[in-house]
Amino acid sequence: MSSNQNLFERAQQCMPGGVNSPVRAFKSVGGSPFFVSRAEGPYLFDVDGNRYIDYVGSWGPMILGHNHPDVLDAVIATARQGLSFGTPNPLEVEMAEFLTQLVPSLEMVRMVNSGTEATMAAIRLARGFTGRNKIVKFEGCYHGHADSFLVKAGSGVLTLGLPNSPGVPAAVADLTLTLPFNDLEAAKALFAAHGPDIAGLILEPIIGNANLILPRAGYLQGLRELCSEHGALLIFDEVMTGFRVAPAGAQSLFGIRPDLSTFGKIIGGGMPVGAYGGRADIMRQIAPSGPVYQAGTLSGNPVAMAAGLAMLKALQAPEFYGRLTEATNKLCQGLTRAAHESGLPFTTNQVCGMFGLFFANEPVETYEQAKAADTARFNRFFHAMLKRGVYLAPSAFEAGFVSIAHDQAVIDQTIAAARASFAEIA
Ligand code: PLP
């Protein structure tokens, strides 16, 4: 038995499904996961000594590639001073200053420990600030696993076909209204019916949890206007897109100023971190300056702050995002060409360091179209690529991530593996 198999057998005895987060278990693509012992640049290495080109990047944070020396050095140097103090520390101030300077809509920010915590706190704040109870989310968007968001969610919920989770009281789920993404008329109708009850509307400005879906021209602006008109807060969940699609996130790419934003992944440099922030008048409602309660034993942890700051600073290098965009474009163009050579229906969506692959004939602009793509074919493609040393997300409903360490040789190798994989599954 391989070390991978042995570990998965052991894991299944003592961990639900053998994993600590559902999509890792390969349930939708079939087979069993591999266990990673080391990662470097664009590569993962498993316990059986296999090397994989990695397009998951720890689900987003690893935009510099794995084990980047700046991040590693910052973590080691900071850890030597102590792992956690439970008092204010200088690095959390530096982080807050850095974030508020980088993202114009962030006038104040609060650090937390995950994306889930960030979105959970953001909607509590929206409810506390507006005195209203309902929130609006979009079909296929994933905002972490808090009760209010497990309604028509994306990511693992969608991958595993769990429309809503047992354990979420109906009384809570009833306060979450849902909308189809990229349909402004539907949003107008919902606000016309429920406007005075809506505390906030939360969305991934670019959906990365139902594969990758981009907003249509003017759509986000339309949502901004609707929220302003009805006194509801516009909340951009940039846990995935923040500092990945542009230096100041999707909001800078589309020129929208949300009232609140949430972040995670990249801002922790690979350590467990989240953040939420926005308009100062709203953020001042958070305890201890205001009455809306939210706290955290490890929030603003110095080692996590050091990792995130080192990563964010490295992203300020000239032409960083241009180079990342170029790498993603080369990858998507090469994959599309190779798929079409095998006569397969295939299309991609991409933005800077994110991409989505669809076995579909038409460009994909909606959640319904993403769901209608050939996921069974994706599952076979996933395994064909894995066999050739390329690791894509083990689900047809997750975006892929390119890092700056994915150079031309790595992209060429990926496209060669894809050409053989497409021929195999055609
Ligand atoms: N929001 C978005 C857009 C995400 O993609 C995720 C996780 O993938 C989350 C929130 C939840 O973040 P975490 O897994 O850190 O709790």
TrEMBL record:
Q: Does this entry carry the keyword Hydrolase? A: no
List the Gene Ontology MF annotations in alphabetical order.
glutamate-1-semialdehyde 2,1-aminomutase activity; pyridoxal phosphate binding; transaminase activity
EC number(s)? Answer: 5.4.3.8
Q: What are the protein's UniProt keywords? A: Cytoplasm, Isomerase, Porphyrin biosynthesis, Pyridoxal phosphate
Q: Which InterPro entries match?
A: 4pyrrol_synth_GluAld_NH2Trfase, Aminotrans_3, Aminotrans_3_PPA_site, PyrdxlP-dep_Trfase, PyrdxlP-dep_Trfase_major, PyrdxlP-dep_Trfase_small
**One of this protein's Pfam families, by short name?**
Aminotran_3
Q: Name one GO cellular component term.
A: cytoplasm
Which cofactors does the annotated protein need, by name? pyridoxal 5'-phosphate
Compartments it resides in: Cytoplasm
Q: Which GO terms describe its biological process?
A: protoporphyrinogen IX biosynthetic process
Name of the protein this chain belongs to: Glutamate-1-semialdehyde 2,1-aminomutase
The root-end lineage is: Bacteria, Pseudomonadati, Pseudomonadota, Gammaproteobacteria, Lysobacterales
